[in-house]
Structures are given as C-alpha cells and as structure tokens.
Design goal:
This protein is of the alpha+beta class. It is built from five helices and seven strands, in the order βααβββαβαββα.
Length: 181
C-alpha cells in the first residue's frame, strides 16, 4: 500500500537533526555500507545533497520524506548515465514508521520524478538479500527482479550481495495506485 500522506521536498541542511534521528540507529542502516552515522557524517551528507543542486547537469536529487509534516525518511535519485538515461533510487525510513507504506511512497515518487521530470529510460535499485522488506517495496513498485550481484559491498558483518531490481519508463505507465499493484 502506498501511503498518500507522504510528501517529498528537497533536503536542506536544517534537516540534519531529523535525519540523524534515524541515520544514527543501527537497525536503520543495518544493510548499508555506511552508518550508524555520527552527527558530523549526517551533516556532511546533507551538505553534499544541497551542493549537488548547483551541479550542471544535475545528477543527484535528495529529498526529505515527510509523513503528516514530520520528516521520517529520505529518498535519493541518482542519474548514473545521461547518455543511456539510467538512474538509481534509494531510500531510508525511520524504524518507528516501518510497515506504514512510507518506503513505497518514497520509491513511487522517486520513480515518477525520474521518468517524468528527468526523462530516464531505466531506473534500478539494489538491496541486501536479507532485507526482505525492502525487496517487497521494490516489487510493489512494479520493479523487476533482475538477479543477484555477489559481494558488491563490504559492510560491518562482511561482504554483502546485492539484489538488483529495475523498471523501464514504458512499464511505469502502469504505476501502482493507493492500494498497490
């Protein structure tokens, strides 16, 4: 289910305390190569996101995800190839709102912006095979599971494989509604 009360807006440096509230939690970044963040690392992330807005062409879009006005997650769209119109999405959600459709809402908005505003042809996402909830989100978004890349990232508990999902622009015309696909 997509939570329609989730809105995205550009991340600003002033969002650091809210982002740090979940980026500093071990459970939130368990499957990531980064984190748990220090306050300085979160600030560096936000400053980098803001600085990316002035790049031309712009290839990084970082958003604050707000649920009923409260920042509860972040979403990022990276243009990986302008020539081949390829992009990647990622998201992070505060654990206290897990299971409420926030990740799916972030993903849907990132895909929509990637295809309609950025003109991408293919958008992909990866997740740790142990992160079953994230894989479900990607499936709900209509993304196709392409396979597993072995030992792509070294994280705290060793090498991590990555499940790869993608969706093409013509497939996104069938985007999920509020009840999901």
């Amino acid at each position: 289910m997509i939570n329609t009360s989730v809105t995205l807006r550009e991340l600003v440096v002033g969002d650091c305390p809210a982002v740090h509230a979940f980026a500093s939690l071990p459970e939130a970044c368990r499957y990531q190569a980064w984190g748990p963040n220090t306050a300085e690392q979160t600030r560096d992330f936000a400053q980098g996101a803001v600085a990316a807005r002035s790049q031309s062409p712009r290839t990084r879009f970082v958003y604050a995800a707000c649920l009923d006005g409260e920042l509860v997650g972040i979403g990022e769209l990276k243009v990986r190839s302008l020539t081949h119109r390829q992009g990647e999405i990622s998201y992070l959600v505060h654990p206290r709102v897990w299971g409420r459709g926030v990740g799916t809402a972030i993903g849907a908005e990132l895909l929509d912006r990637g295809f309609t505003l950025t003109g991408l042809h293919r958008i992909y996402a990866t997740c740790d095979p142990r992160n079953v909830a994230s894989a479900r989100v990607l499936g709900r978004l209509g993304m196709t599971h392409e396979g597993r890349h072995r030992h792509t990232t070294r994280i705290r508990d060793g090498w991590r494989d990555s499940e790869v999902f993608s969706i093409l622009d013509q497939e996104w015309t069938h985007r999920p509604g509020p009840e999901g696909p």
